[in-house]
Amino acid sequence: MKRRTFILGTSTLGAAAVLAACSSGSSGDSATTTTEVPAADYEAATYDEIKNGGTYNVALQELGEQQNPFHGNASGYATDVWYWYNPQFALYSPEGEWSFNPDYFTDVTAEEVDSNTVVTYTIRDEATWNDGTAID
């Protein structure tokens, strides 16, 4: 009986310690401050305003042999780098509204056919991959 009481008492004490650690320790009278973060926090510029050339330095913890971001062995770092040198087909406004990139498409439409959504991309004739190969 004494052992059961001891175990019950220590588990109750342990639970109380855990719950006490989760509390904020404030009386609830303190004011909460919030900081509003803008939807897009960058300097918008047109292509003509951006200087060509230069050096861009970035720190990566690792960049493995697997450069395909859709492969199971790819890392988050490889995925980040992949997005830097591949075309960006979708654009988003600061409000989060989607639009197609007019550098690659002349039109993008979506319609429902036999209960399936069919998206049709009309590729611009001048559109190329980063190596100059036509996108077709």
UniProtKB/TrEMBL annotation:
Which segment of the chain is annotated as a signal peptide? 1-20
Keywords of the record:
Signal
Specify the domain of life of the species encoding this protein.
Bacteria
Signal among the record's keywords? Answer: yes
Annotated protein name in UniProt: Oligopeptide-binding protein AppA
